[in-house]
Amino acid sequence: GDSVTQMEGPVTLSEEACLTINCTYTATGYPSLFWYVQYPGEGLQLLLKATKADDKGSNKGFEATYRKETTSFHLEKGSVQVSDSAVYFCALRYNTDKLIFGTGTRLQVFP
Amino acid sequence: EPEVTQTPSHQVTQMGQEVILRCVPISNHLYFYWYRQILGQKVEFLVSFYNNEISEKSEIFDDQFSVERPDGSNFTLKIRSTKLEDSAMYFCASSEAYGLSNQPQHFGDGTRLSIL
């Protein structure tokens, strides 16, 4: 079945470092892809999305490009802040109601 | 910005008891969802709901679970006879449109359910 695989965390970075969180997917067709973020004590918030190959989603300095050839949707940010500390979830949705999530990657940014 | 609200934030219940988790979706949304996240595991889809009926459910959503939209604003998840393995964070979500995979689902902050 369709699935999402994320790199395991935690990812620990110093402020202003570059971030990459890897996400790959398996799907029978061409899904829509999402990154959600969960700040401590809060729910899941949509961070960005991409709906077709080569689309780039971006928000709050984060970017991810839908790569059909590598079935990937890696999350990147050029300079992280302490306030970016959270759990990041990659997810897909294809031809169904449900979002299929990865396991989540915890990011810890230290000053 | 409109948001999905869930109550209570934490529910503690004895095994075998019934529990109702409540959600108020975003007001102009028509499609509603429940997900759960057992501690340390993935967020899992439970059920979707549209036009007063279930449109899709997972294998987790067995006869012990039910959903209802009792009025124009609330959306509830009922677990009839709770088990220890029902302990999890339960998330409600809503979306504006159906049939378009790129429509985002907006999530609440979740209800942490603890079964003793």
Helix content of chain B: under 10%
- Structural class of chain B comes to mainly beta
**Largest sheet of chain B at a glance?**
7 strands, mixed
CA-based shape of chain B: globular
Let me know the number of strands of chain B: 11
- Note the gap between the termini of chain A: 41 Å
Q: What would you report as the Rg of chain B, rounded to the nearest angstrom?
A: 13 Å
H-E order of chain B: EEEEEEEEEEE
- Give the number of helices of chain B: 0
Q: What percentage of amino acids of chain B are in beta strands?
A: over 45%
Largest interface: A-B, 26 and 26 residues
Order of helices and strands of chain A: EEEEEEEEEEEE
Mean pLDDT of chain A: 94
Helical run tally of chain A:
0
SS-based class of chain A = mainly beta
What does it look like?
The complex is a heterodimer of chains A (111) and B (116). With 111 residues, chain A is mostly beta strands. In chain A, 0% of the residues lie in helices and 50% in strands. In chain A, the strands form 3 sheets. In chain A, strands 2, 5, 6, 10, 11 and 12 form a 6-stranded mixed sheet that branches. A 4-stranded antiparallel sheet of chain A has the order 3-9-8-7, with no helix packed on it. Chain A is globular and about 40 Å long. Chain B is mostly beta strands and 116 residues long. In chain B, the strands form 2 sheets. In chain B, strands 2, 4, 5, 6, 9, 10 and 11 form a 7-stranded mixed sheet that branches. In chain B, strand 5 (43-50) and strand 6 form a beta hairpin. The chains are: A mainly beta (111), B mainly beta (116).
Provide a brief overview of the structure.
The complex is a heterodimer of chains A (111) and B (116). Chain A is an all-beta fold.
List keywords for this structure.
heterodimer; A: about 110 residues; mainly beta; 6-stranded mixed β-sheet; 4-stranded antiparallel β-sheet; globular; B: about 120 residues; 7-stranded mixed β-sheet; 11 strands; about 0% helix
